[in-house]
Amino acid sequence: MAKNELTLFVWEATDRNGARMKGELPSKSENAARADLRRQGLKVVKIKKKPTPLFTARKKKIIPKDIAVFSRQLATMLTAGVPLVQAFDIVGRGHDNPSMQDLILAIKADIEGGNPLAESLGKHPLYFDELFCNLVHAGEQAGVLETLLHKIADYKEKTETLKGKIKKALTYPTAVIIVAVIVTAILLVFVVPTFEDLFKGFGAELPAFTQMVVNLSRLLRDQWYLFGGVLVAAIVILTNLKRRSVAFNHGLDRLILKIPVIGEIMRKASIARFARTLSTMSAAGVPLVEALQSVAGATGNIVYGSAILQMRDEVATGHQLQLAMRQSNLFPNMVIQMVAIGEESGSIDSMLSKVADFYEEEVDNAVDALSSLLEPMIMAFLGVVVGGLVIAMYLPIFKLGAVV
Predict the structure, then answer these.
(1) Which of 113, 118, 147 is nearest to 132 (CA)?
(2) Which long-range contacts (C-beta less than 8 Å, at least 24 apart) are formed by 354-358?
């Protein structure tokens, strides 16, 4: 069993009045479950692990939206005066996702063991990153945990909205290109050979364009395993490089920033994330150098992440943030000026929040513009691909008709 994983126990017990009760309780072990029931004033009669059904539903994956909802629910509970452990119990048991429910109840059990909330969350880095834990730690230290959790919820909701906009910009053209490739492959493998048999009866040389399509069809039918092998190998190699090579990721992110339209959207999104994250951490009272360390991993682009780490080193040696930003050559003058005003007036969090609002709106507008631009271009692309294949197949027939 993995560390912090809970087991569900079914129990029967009697209360102080001798009334018989039964229920279910997630716990790390049977002894821990018995101790939990005793603390509730119950005398355990029977307790055992709940049997696993023969056919169990597959657990849903925990997604960032689940973490955002959890943050908002926990903040609301604490603001209403509900004790932390009880709040975890209510939120955990009320969650629709069983995987998220297990995670919340595991953290609750850790808190009951006497660990601070930030430390308990830090044991699950896959779901609670350094930024999340730092903000929770700051809230615990300052005694304003519910306020910080509301800020975290706002931050998570805004960043997830921004991610959704970026995915919207990239998913549509990618899906259409994949469909175009599949349609083209089907035409080449199943439709073109039918025409090829027909052309053999003409006894004449095929037009160059038609011959090229026929040759491509033969190649795809005869060497399909080679094409498939190259495609699979390319996917595996690129996946491993992206997972393990910093240089590859740096080069890929730099290339993405240079792509027309898409690159501009990614640049604005990185600036929006930088501003939103740093604003949230500054408002929480996290020191600037420490905040920049967390911000670097939140930009979604390794080029900006590396630049922010360099800015952190410069700020640590006494430079102003706005000067470090100017030297990076990655931030527009407007952003630098807003940061400069914030540094001079002591309101850098509110200035960065305005910057984040502006660039999030810019990303939204750019995505809408891109969608409007891509639709006719993609239709034209599909028309050229499919129409070109159709024309190639009918060219010999047209020529034959012209001769007759």
Answers:
(1) 118
(2) 355/271, 355/272, 355/275, 355/279, 356/158, 356/272, 356/275, 356/276, 356/279
Query: Could you report the per-residue pLDDT of 137-190, keeping only the tens digit for each?
Result: 888 887 888 888 888 888 888 888 888 877 877 787 788 788 888 888 888 888
Each residue of 178-237: pLDDT tens digit?
888 888 888 888 888 888 777 776 666 778 888 888 888 888 888 878 878 888 898 889
Overall residue count recorded for the chain in this entry:
404
Q: If pLDDT is split at 50, 70 and 90, which confidence band does 3 have?
A: very low
Q: Which long-range contacts (CB under 8 A, 24 or more apart) does 166-173 make?
A: 166/265, 166/266, 166/269, 166/363, 166/367, 168/367, 168/371, 169/262, 169/265, 169/366, 169/367, 169/370, 169/371, 170/262, 172/371, 172/374, 172/378, 173/374, 173/378
d(CA 249, CA 336): 27
Residue 251 is encoded by which pair of tokens?
A: 């080069």
Q: Which residue has the higher pLDDT, 154 or 341?
A: 341
What tokens appear for 109 in the block? Answer: 């059990």
13 in Cβ contact with 45 (< 8 Å): yes
Q: Can you give the three-state secondary structure of 25-63, one letter per residue?
A: EEECCHHHHHHHHHHCCCEEEEEEECCCCCCCCCCCCCC
Please answer whether residues 360 and 155 qualify as being in contact, where contact means their C-beta atoms are separated by less than 8 angstroms: no
pTM of the model: 0.68
Token pair for residue 112? 């009951």
Residue 136 near residue 120 (C-beta atoms within 8 A):
no
User: For residue range 342-376, what is the model confidence (pLDDT) as tens digits?
Assistant: 988 888 989 999 999 999 889 888 888 877 777 78
Closest CA to 360 of 303, 276, 304: 276
d(CA 167, CA 19): 56
Reduce the DSSP state of residue 231 to 3 states and report it.
helix
Alpha carbons 321 and 315: distance in angstroms, whole number = 6
- Classify residue 94 by its DSSP letter: T
The single-letter code of the amino acid at 273 is R
Distance between CA atoms of residues 66 and 121, nearest Å: 15
DSSP codes of every residue in 265-304? HHHHHHHHHHHHHHHHHHHTT--HHHHHHHHHTTSS-HHH
